[in-house]
Amino acid sequence: QRYLNFDLAKNDTKALSETFSTALIIHSLIALTLILLSETVGLWFMYEKMVIPEERMTAAMWVLQCAILVMSVNIISVPYNAAIIAHEKMGAFAYISLLEATLKLLIVYMLYISPVDKLILYAILLLTVSVVIRFVYSSYSHKHFKETHFRFIWNTVKLKEMGAFASWNLIGNLALMGVTQGLNMLLNVFGPVVNAARGVAVQVQGAIQQFANNFQTAINPQITKSYASDQLEYMYSLVCRGAKFSFFMVLFMSLPFLIMTDQALELWLKTPPAYTSTFLRIILLNVMIDCLSNPLNNSVNASGRIRTFQLTNGILMLSVVPLAYVALRMHANPALAFFTQLLITGIAHFIKLSFAKKRTGLPFSYYARKVYLPITAVGLLSPIIPYVLYWHGNKSLLSFFITGILCLISVALTAYIFGLSKNERTVINTKLISITNKIKR
Predict the structure, then answer these.
(1) Which of 101, 104, 225, 407 sits at 20 to 30 Å (Cα–Cα) from 208?
(2) Given this model, what pLDDT does residue 360 score?
(3) Is 392 helix (H, G, I), strand (E, B) or coil?
(4) pLDDT tier at 414 (50, 70, 90 boundaries)?
(5) CA–CA distance, 246 with 252 (Å, rounded to integer)
């Protein structure tokens, strides 16, 4: 997407076509490499190291094979997704995402009515959805963007440049995957209950994180295009607004869970696994820090100089697993693994800010004024009234819903009053007036 955005900003159709075809070749090679690793090292690890009941090994094998295929399909889909986003066809992106969500909801119903092994069926149905969505993305791209008609182009210079960029990005992504799966494997030592607690917390995290990611997806092309056009001031404002609004969105979705964690989990699961509430609170704080970092990542990626950035970030993130292991050896409390991850995510954020300054010139004082000050004010003020009401209430179902609504109102109001600049409030007021007028008509 970074290279597609660059070519679009420069209006170079030939380079655009070469970029897409080269990207598809690179992603196909990445997919093939990961298939080979999964079918060798992955199989060995599953059979030799993982704690899986013997009677569930067949199901585990089905899940692994389907997951490998899903991963491969998703990787090969990346250039098509990137083309849609680079052209800023967010309506198409939203509709396809809605189709994907609907199909996954259908999976839930099919699992409910099916008499067969639900884990195996779940894996097969997820694979089916991935293939369908991959077909929709490629069909839409072929119809609307000429550059997505694949031609075998072996441009050594472009292949080397994009291959290096993809490789360094891959290191960063593998580090993130290593943290996620490494913590899963580490917590597997404590037994299935702890893994189940993490699974529940990660489900909530995924839903909230997706909410912020969709917003950031809309601004990412503009960050790269503004850098390519040498409009750095505009790029700085996009990065800061992206970070700030993402934080507000995550806080808006998270605050009810942070304040009423236990009651929310009991309503959802009746008897949630031990540690779930602790895991969820820490993970949501982690998401808040992470959403601030994503626009900084994109600004560094826009510069194209990412080797040192990805190596530094990758090494730092991979340190979570050994540090968590040491913490767990000293004190066998699984929550320490998540506190370790939270600490490293915080350190990584400031390192990313440092790289953004080095690669794009983003001033730290500007970022602090535009991001840290407003999010600190909103983050400290918005929980006060909902928190007081909840802890002095009767914990009834009605009180739960009233507090939840109050959390949303509190975040919205404090963000509007203390989190937005005068110009941002004017834009929102104009939009609200426009919506109100349309409703009246």
Answers:
(1) 225
(2) 93
(3) coil
(4) very high
(5) 10
DSSP 3-state of 383: coil
Q: Model confidence at 191, in pLDDT bands (50, 70, 90)?
A: low
Q: How confident is the model at residue 206 (pLDDT cuts 50, 70, 90)?
A: confident
Tokens 């509709």 belong to: 95
Of 17, 12, 2, give the one whose Cα is nearest residue 225.
Answer: 2
pLDDT tens track for 344-353 = 999 999 999 9
Which of 267, 290, 264 is CA-nearest to residue 277?
264
pLDDT of residue 149: 84
Q: How far apart are CA 76 and CA 29, in angstroms?
A: 9
Joined together, the tokens standing for residue 101 give 């969500």
C-alpha of 413 from chain center? 26
Q: What are phi and psi of 230, to 5 degrees?
A: 65, 30
Amino acid identity, position 175: A
Q: In whole numbers, what is the pLDDT of the chain averaged over residues?
A: 88
At 133-162, the pLDDT tens digits run: 989 988 998 888 888 888 887 778 888 888
Largest CA distance in the chain: 69
> For 267-279, what is each residue's pLDDT tens digit?
888 888 888 889 8
Nearest CA to 266 out of 280, 252, 285, 250 is that of 280
Contact 34, 71 (CB under 8 A): yes
More confident residue, 19 or 414: 414
Distance CA(341)–CA(179), nearest Å, equals 8
**Tokens found for residue 123:** 């894996």
Give me the residue label for tokens 């203390």: 418
3-state SS, residue 105: helix
Name the pTM for this structure. Answer: 0.80
Q: How far apart are CA 227 and CA 222, in angstroms?
A: 8
Contact call for residues 286 and 254 (beta carbons, < 8 A): no
Instruction: Using DSSP, state whether 187 is helix, strand or coil.
Output: helix
Rounded to whole angstroms, the Cα distance separating 213 from 206 reads 10
Closest CA to 343 of 357, 355, 326: 326
- Taking the C-alpha atoms of residue 435 and residue 260, their distance in angstroms, rounded to an integer, is 33
